[in-house]
Description:
Blueprint: H1 3-12, H2 16-19, E1 37-43, E2 46-55, E3 61-69, E4 72-82, E5 88-97, E6 100-101, E7 104-108, E8 113-118, E9 122-126, E10 131-132, H3 142-152, E11 157-160, E12 164-175, E13 182-190, E14 197-202, E15 207-209, E16 215-218, H4 224-247, E17 256-265, E18 270-280, E19 283-289, E20 300-303, E21 307-311, E22 313-315, H5 324-332, E23 335-340, H6 345-356, E24 364-373, E25 383-385, H7 388-400, E26 405-408, H8 414-426, E27 430-433, H9 441-447, E28 451-453, H10 455-459, H11 465-468, H12 475-483, H13 492-504, E29 507-509, H14 512-520, H15 539-544, H16 558-577, E30 581-582, H17 593-603, H18 607-612, H19 616-621, E31 639-643, E32 656-661, E33 664-667, H20 668-674
Parallel strand pairs: 10-11, 17-20, 17-21, 22-23, 23-24, 24-25, 24-26, 26-27, 27-28, 28-29, 29-30
Antiparallel strand pairs: 1-2, 1-16, 2-3, 3-4, 4-5, 5-6, 5-7, 7-8, 8-9, 11-12, 12-13, 13-14, 14-15, 17-18, 18-19, 21-31, 31-32, 32-33
Amino acid sequence: MSKSRLLIALSLAVAPAALMAAPATKEQLLVAPAGARHYTISSIAGKHGDVWSWTLPDGRTAYRMSMSLRGWITETDEVDTAGTDGRPTVIAIRGFTDNGDATEDYSVGGDGVATWKTAVDGGSAPLGAKRYSAYGGPWLAQERDVAALVAAGDKGIDMLPGGHSRIRIGQPMTIDAPGGARSLKLAFIEGSSFAPTPVWLDADNRFFGNAGQISLLPAGSEVLGPKLKDIQEKAVEGLVRDVAHRFLSPAHRTPTLFDHVKLFDSVAGRYLADRAVLVANGKVAAVGAGGSLRAPAGTTRIDGRGKTLLPGLWDSHQHVGGDDWNLLQNVATGMTNYRSPGSLIVDALSITKRRAAGDLLAPEGKISVIIDRKDPLAAQGALTVTSAAEAIAAVDKIKAAGLWGAKFYTSMTPAWIAPAAAEAHRLGLHVHGHVPAGMRPIDAVRAGYDEITHINFIMMQAMPQEVVDKANTAARLEGPAKYGKDVDLDSPAMKAFYAELAKRGTIVDPTLTVWEQLMTSDGSALSPEYAPFAAISPPAVARGWKIAGYPLFDGLTRDDFRKSFAKMVGLVGRLHQAGVRIVAGTDGAGLELVRELELYQQAGLTNAEALQTATIIPARMTGMADRVGSIAPGKTADLILVDGDVEQSLAALRHIDKVVLDGNLLDGDELRAAAGFSGRPR
Length: 682
């Protein structure tokens, strides 16, 4: 027996109960034989991983995926047994991802009852005509579901554990590809996400691949990624244009009077009872006591009793580009502004142009571009460089595109930061980013950073040198997870660090919600940032929000990780107390923003101080405070009306009643429906 066959036999002999005890290691996973179908995972930064598929001697289908994405590792395999109707009767997935244990078992009994178990859920139900949708597994395995949806046609398929999906297939198009022209079709899967999900089919309607900032394509076809991404984004532009025109019609720009509301004064950091605000011609026309303002004829009058009126929210860590639907969802959840800490230049210019033309319903933003050293661990979507001179040239390219900032990344050579940052400042650009491996945050600030991104990089100030030196790998999480619980946040060295950040005017973008989910989750419950949205979201999305947490290592427990996360929260409080400016960002979909603010309250910020991090402070950071970030006469009418008293609970921010975007009065329920929600969050 060959070595690969022996590994297959041994790995498949392990009982499912044993598999659930611990994730399979990389060495225990299947090894793809020579001649296996081969796909790659890639971006403009290079190749990030591989996926193979082949048929086992007994007729079952096997998949194997191996990926390193900026140091986050995925190693999984999958074996499927097909029934007489082609549907899987057994699915066995093993391995691990950066979200934890990937083990998943599904089977159909002789009684027709389907049973499934993952690291985050489990259940059983009569299969009937339904089809099980796997929680995880190698990405190429989606081809089996795509084939079933194609066969089902317009009627689609009911899915287990829940939901209904169908596929819409476009017309064939000829694409220049390696080896000659290919006939491909762009299709959209509906029902599995908030918005239609693009997928590429071949001429025979078989799965060809996925394209985007990260693409899954047949080996040798990686060059098609950007081309296919551009085509599908043009198709999406047409869909979102119709939505934008519906909401941004003249009927939504009539004068509006909000009367008898509680108003949040973001500049003073206080709430004002019984106020009135008049919006006209896209601006805040007047602010006064409740009942005191006269409104012109035709004004829409809104009784604000029991409600809170606030400046529109900011997410200061919202990567934009490639998902216009998410921008619509951002508006639906009260976001009128964002700062993107890393977008492709072409995406940034497209979003800005279409928003200005009224063809895209989206918050208004400021955008940075990532610069990283050309390296296997380089950030996807980055401008990659090989010298200080090239780093300076990349900064010049960002400025020439009319964008706002340069974001340096973890694989940058430390010596290149100072000259590149100096060029950025000469050109009036904001400088921020991850801290490059080998540097501590204070080194980055002294080299020219205006802002540090992510609280784990602030924690690097107290990490052992071996962690700092590998901060472009998973060590940037694993180090703080392991050692964070033991850091003395009030030591003289840390206090001196906070003081220097404050003196230099350094800004910190903590993104606590990223680390809360990874470090504290154990698969038993939905993370607090997503729980309020679960009941109104597509079942597959809500299920995907559950994770088993970052894999434990070195004998650490989940409680150890939670203690380290608590230190991260405490670190935000210490920074704020020292006078360091905090801006609220999620590095997610934006749904996490309210939870981010709640964590700031846990850190010691007041309710109003937490809200300032998502209103006036980012407006000042981006140079936009003369137009947005607060409610005052003459400012752009970017407002949100919340059903409830935000002063009593920041959780009320999830209950958006109305959004005023550039003076357009938009209904919260209608926005949520357009964004894919089935109701109001709890």
